Amino acid sequence: MCKKFYEEWSSKKNSLDYGLDGIVIKINSRKIQEALATPASRRAGGRLQISGEQVTTVVEDISFQVGRMGTITPVAHLRPVVVAGSRFLARHFTTKMKSRDWM
Question: Residue 78 and residue 56: Cα distance in Å, rounded?
């Protein structure tokens, strides 16, 4: 039942007049709540994330910042992108650059 509800909303999220990134499900059955519970909390509901829009950008420049302790941090300047109607000026820092073997 929950899977069908999730799939229904996932398929129609792009045709809505508002943004949607997930749905919340509440469990009414006490028996199911107890089956989902952990020792730390009861589980009367949960949130299911709906896959968001993915876009690609271009690295236009890489500069370096020097912190107050002398740490040098590379900063990639990326071409602005539009995601779900909002314009983003994105920057990647050291962690992402190392994980992609750019450094």
Answer: 10
